[in-house]
């Protein structure tokens, strides 16, 4: 810009409310050749409290609707005036702006008139811009005329214009007002147009210049205003001030960055165990796969594994077999209780029965004083439920002691209790 002393800002942001009560912000950056280019344009709903903290983290100028009044007009009770010294005084409604200030609290550097683009845009994007000129912008049937004298915005006039005659007629009224009402003789004779639609008014009768404005700003009048407001950081502008509690603080971005870092750390701490678990499980699976492949490829290990499996099955079988209670103790007790007094047992033998793991064959041998005792002994054994197939294998008198007889009994024993 060409206005007086400037602040050397490399990045600036302006924000204005739209007709739909949303916000639109424009951020510009200064290039190495000291030219300004648009970095980003953002729009969000005014009820959103998060996006301003993200989009305006470096602070922004807020452009508000301004009424330009004669300096001799008394201060209205519902308006506040800027201390900015100009031919026509800038004023705004604090009640109207309060909702905007609250929505952007903590991100606003200062309040400035949203008409500031009428001076800042030409001074930034018009190569042959003069120190004094009339800035013109036509939008929705309203022609805004900004009077710039010696690089200072002295006043803004809103003109309802639809024909060339209306434009020149209104210009004549503004010039008469400037000369007779304000007693000024410095009315500019140069016009700078903002936007190509002003060519329809045939302003070539005056010394007319055009600003080479970036396309993304021309397409939206709100973006154009926001960009113009952003440039108020680099020079003198009609500002209105803001309460200290709503002002932008350099500590806020630092606090936000710290909060974001803490949030990221918290997420990392919460995610890290899960990631490590997944990684460990993957590593374990890989080790198991490698181990199994080695086992499959080694013949000695395969043989050893087969022997181990076979041995373990045998051990389990033995364990299962010998963990069950047998009928041996019941058999011995029954033999003692069923034996007649004159019958004696000398031998007790057993052998497995092929194809059966639950039954064995029992042989009982001994002597008795009479055959009747042997018969009674067999009858007593037959009453037992765990002995089956009792038969007398042999019964004969002893060759040497004829008063006794020798016997041999065969039967089947249920080996395990049921």
In short:
The protein is an alpha+beta fold. It is built from ten helices and 17 strands. A hairpin with a 6-residue loop joins strand 6 and strand 7 (88-92).
Q: Which helices and strands appear, and what pairs or packs with what?
A:
Blueprint: E1 11-17, E2 22-30, E3 36-45, H1 51-55, E4 60-64, E5 67-70, E6 80-81, E7 88-92, H2 94-103, E8 108-113, H3 117-125, E9 133-139, E10 142-148, E11 153-160, H4 164-181, E12 190-194, E13 207-210, H5 215-218, H6 221-230, H7 251-297, H8 299-322, H9 328-338, E14 343-352, E15 359-368, H10 371-382, E16 387-397, E17 405-414
Parallel strand pairs: 1-4, 4-8, 9-12, 12-13
Antiparallel strand pairs: 1-2, 2-3, 5-7, 6-7, 9-10, 10-11, 14-15, 15-17, 16-17
Structure characterization notes:
By secondary structure, the protein is an alpha+beta fold. It folds into 2 domains: 11-257, no CATH class; 328-414, Ribosomal protein S6/Translation elongation factor EF1B (Alpha-Beta Plaits). A hairpin with a 2-residue loop joins strand 9 (133-139) and strand 10. The chain starts with 10 loop residues before the first strand and ends with a strand. It has helices at 51-55, 94-103, 117-125, 164-181, 215-218, 221-230, 251-297, 299-322, 328-338, 371-382, and strands at residues 11-17, 22-30, 36-45, 60-64, 67-70, 80-81, 88-92, 108-113, 133-139, 142-148, 153-160, 190-194, 207-210, 343-352, 359-368, 387-397, 405-414. The chain is rod-shaped, with a radius of gyration of 55 Å.
């Amino acid at each position: 810009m060409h206005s007086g002393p400037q602040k050397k800002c490399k990045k600036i942001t302006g924000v204005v409310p739209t007709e739909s009560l949303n916000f639109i912000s424009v951020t510009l950056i200064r290039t190495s050749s000291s030219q300004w280019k648009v970095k980003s344009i953002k729009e969000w709903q005014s009820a959103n409290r998060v996006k301003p903290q993200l989009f305006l983290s470096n602070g922004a100028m807020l452009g508000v609707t301004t009424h330009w009044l004669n300096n001799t007009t008394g201060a209205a009770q519902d308006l506040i005036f800027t201390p900015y010294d100009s031919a026509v005084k800038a004023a705004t409604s604090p009640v109207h702006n309060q909702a905007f200030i609250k929505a952007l609290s903590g991100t606003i550097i200062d309040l400035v008139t949203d008409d500031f683009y009428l001076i800042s845009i030409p001074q930034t994007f018009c190569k042959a811009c003069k120190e004094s000129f009339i800035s013109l912008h036509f939008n929705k049937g309203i022609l805004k005329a900004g009077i710039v004298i010696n690089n200072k915005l002295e006043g803004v006039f809103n003109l309802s214009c639809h024909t060339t005659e209306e434009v020149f007629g209104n210009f004549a009224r503004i010039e008469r007002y400037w000369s007779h009402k304000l007693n000024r003789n410095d009315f500019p004779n140069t016009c700078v147009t903002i936007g190509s639609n002003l060519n329809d008014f045939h302003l070539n009768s005056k010394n007319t210049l055009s600003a080479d404005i970036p396309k993304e700003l021309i397409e939206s009048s709100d973006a154009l205003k926001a960009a113009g407001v952003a440039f108020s950081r680099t020079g003198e502008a009609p500002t209105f001030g803001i309460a200290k509690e709503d002002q932008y603080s350099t500590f806020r971005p630092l606090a936000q960055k710290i909060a974001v870092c803490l949030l990221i750390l918290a997420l990392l701490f919460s995610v890290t165990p899960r990631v490590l678990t997944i990684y460990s499980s993957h590593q374990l699976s890989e080790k198991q796969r490698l181990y199994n492949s080695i086992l499959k490829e080694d013949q000695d290990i395969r043989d050893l594994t087969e022997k181990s499996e076979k041995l373990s099955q045998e051990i389990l079988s033995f364990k299962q077999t010998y963990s069950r209670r047998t009928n041996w103790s019941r058999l011995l007790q029954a033999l003692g209780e069923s034996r007649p007094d004159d019958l004696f047992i000398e031998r007790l033998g057993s052998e497995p029965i092929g194809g059966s793991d639950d039954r064995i064959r029992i042989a009982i041998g001994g002597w008795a004083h009479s055959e009747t005792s042997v018969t009674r002994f067999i009858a007593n054994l037959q009453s037992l439920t765990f002995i089956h197939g009792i038969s007398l294998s042999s019964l004969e008198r002893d060759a040497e002691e004829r008063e006794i007889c020798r016997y041999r009994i065969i039967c089947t024993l249920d080996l395990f209790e049921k």
